[in-house]
Design goal:
The complex is a heterodimer of chains A (306) and B (255). Chain A has 306 residues and is α/β, with parallel strands linked by helices. Chain A is 36% helix and 25% strand. The chains are: A alpha/beta (306), B mainly alpha (255).
């Protein structure tokens, strides 16, 4: 479990992380979502004790990171940038980390095989592709068989096969009862892997909810219709207590109503319909809207009306 | 303490599994020995041509160590690379995630680095002494004569301290490029020039390398305001200061 308590990081006057309070629960994949520059990486670095919080607190299993003895046995992390000496072989790189935390040497070939780098164990990462670099990073995260795993933008720059592999790995780790905390700026990516969501924008907490709740609350379903007599249609809808929104291409969008009901209404009043289609706003849109509001909030000082 | 030995082992593996480390140490040895022998050879052949004052104060031990002014640059390079490679590669994040106790991390790296340069420094010093004396022939001294053993051990200590000083400075600067561009000109040009010009000599003598070389001279020219051990102590103080500054930087800065 990871607990953040009013975690704050300021660089001069810039606030990167702003009073972030949340808990990352074990046994599920928690998505850490936010646009680029929202403070995700900074938050993760503070969790690992790499960056010092300006204020607030973060605890891993109830302890500060630098109080953990052999931390790689508690938490394994893949950070965004490569954290590997290009001249030290993959095998030696992992050996260095294993030795520092008293992890048995036999784990090194084990994790290398697990991430599919067994054949390049004695090669220097200098010549590794981005995907191989990511796999080596994941191998070092898994080295101590920790209960908590943290991945910062793990699918960045990966080929489809690599992305598929990472998704399955994360699901597998969560099914083993591990805490999996993964950051991304892509909602679509999260929708496939995460069960729980923590959304931040400009360093502030925007949502801390289950994926199911998030979808329910944020995915707007509506019906789109086109008619040659939009004015009369509006009146009919108004009488029925519905408020349509006109779109740029002359169609109408009606929220919270079944398409059946709209078809019946049109028939009752003898209105011609050229189109009647139920729509679902994508999660990506919901996410964009959520974070756009955060941006607007900071830019104009008003939280409403977006 | 089990934990401390784990981290020291890990730092040992780190230092010995990268080529640059071993290359810089090998170069420090070779350059010091080869130039020491060559200059000893040169002086042996031209000794009669030297002015009388220089012949009287001729120091056969210091002469055989003449290659050290170049060889120390490789030692400095070792110290810089050992620390700076953490930062230039991003390895520092993996290292500190594995060992978040920054004081322990730095101590372990320092111990491993110091041990390596001490061994190589001592071997270099003794080899260059014996080869240099062999070449100097009639002008040579034996290791048993007054102050000679002190000077030869001192040569090893000097090389060790200069590398450790470089480590301390690099913990502050966190960049190989910065550290090289400050330390190499400083020790290769600035301090030797300061110490050889009459007007700036009194200042030049207080720099770590100039003070440290006092331990290697057997003949006291009486020019310096401190003796051989006093000089070494000045160098030790510089090194301690650099390490303290490095520790404070590591402790305070985000990785």
């Amino acid at each position: 479990m990871i607990e953040l308590d009013r975690l704050t990081k300021r660089y001069g006057t810039t606030v990167a992380v702003d009073q972030l309070t949340c808990t990352v629960q074990p046994g599920v994949v928690t998505g850490f979502l936010g646009p680029n520059g929202a403070g995700k990486s900074t938050t993760m670095r503070m969790m690992l004790g790499l960056d010092r919080p300006t204020a607030g607190d973060v605890r891993i299993d109830g302890e500060h990171y630098d109080r953990l003895r052999d931390p790689l046995n508690h938490i394994g992390a893949l950070l965004e940038a490569k954290a590997v000496h290009p001249g030290r072989t993959a095998y030696n790189h992992l050996t260095v980390l294993a030795q520092s935390n008293g992890i048995p040497q036999k784990r090194v070939p084990e994790v290398l095989d697990l991430v599919g780098l067994g054949s390049v164990a004695k090669k220097r990462p200098k010549g590794f592709s981005l995907g191989m670099g990511q796999r080596l990073g994941i191998a070092s995260a898994l080295l101590g068989d920790p209960k908590i795993l943290m991945f910062d933008e793990p699918v960045n720059g990966l080929d489809p096969e690599g992305i598929h592999w990472i998704r399955n790995l994360m699901k597998y780790l969560a099914s083993e009862g591990k805490t999996v905390f993964v950051s991304s700026h892509l909602m679509s990516e999260m929708a496939l892997t995460a069960e729980h969501l923590i959304v931040i924008g400009r360093g502030r907490l925007l949502a801390d909810t289950s994926m199911r709740e998030f979808i329910k609350e944020n995915s707007r379903s509506y019906v789109r219709l086109r008619t040659p007599e939009p004015e009369r249609m509006r009146d009919v809808l108004a009488t029925a207590g519905l408020t349509p929104v006109a779109t740029e291409d002359g169609a109408l969008e009606v929220d919270s109503v079944e398409s059946d009901r709209l078809g019946e209404l049109a028939a009752e009043h003898g209105l011609v319909l050229h189109e009647l289609s139920p729509q679902q706003a994508s999660l990506e849109e919901a996410f964009m809207q959520l974070t756009a509001e955060a941006v607007q909030y900071h830019a104009h000082g008003t939280g409403k009306g977006a | 303490m089990a934990h401390t030995t784990q981290v020291i082992r890990s730092e040992w593996t780190k230092a010995t599994t990268v080529r640059a480390t071993l290359w810089t140490l090998a170069i420090a040895f070779l350059v010091t020995v080869v130039f020491g022998v060559l200059i000893s050879l040169l002086l042996n052949n031209t000794f009669e041509d030297l002015p009388e004052r220089e012949r009287l104060t001729f120091d056969p031990v210091l002469t055989s160590f003449a290659g050290m002014s170049l060889g120390q640059l490789a030692m400095i390079a070792f110290g810089i690379l050992l620390v700076a490679s953490e930062y230039s590669t991003g390895m520092i994040r993996a290292s500190l995630a594995a060992v978040p106790q920054r004081g322990l991390f730095m101590t372990a790296k320092l111990l491993v680095g110091t041990l390596l340069v001490l061994v190589v420094g001592m071997v270099t010093s003794f080899v260059t002494f014996f080869l240099g004396q062999a070449v100097l022939g009639d002008l040579s001294v034996s290791i048993g004569e007054t102050n000679v053993l002190r000077a030869v051990i001192g040569g090893g200590l000097y090389m060790t301290l200069i590398a450790v000083f470089a480590m301390g400075i690099t913990w502050v600067l966190r960049s190989a490029l910065l550290a090289f561009s400050i330390l190499v000109p400083l020790f290769f040009l600035v301090t030797p020039i300061l110490a050889s010009i009459e007007a700036t000599r009194d200042v030049g003598y207080w720099f770590p390398d100039q003070a440290g070389t006092a331990i290697m001279s057997v003949v006291d020219t009486g020019e310096r305001p401190y003796g051989p051990w006093g000089g070494l102590l000045i160098m030790v103080l510089w090194t301690v200061a650099a390490l303290v500054a490095g520790y404070v930087t590591l402790k305070k800065r985000d990785a």
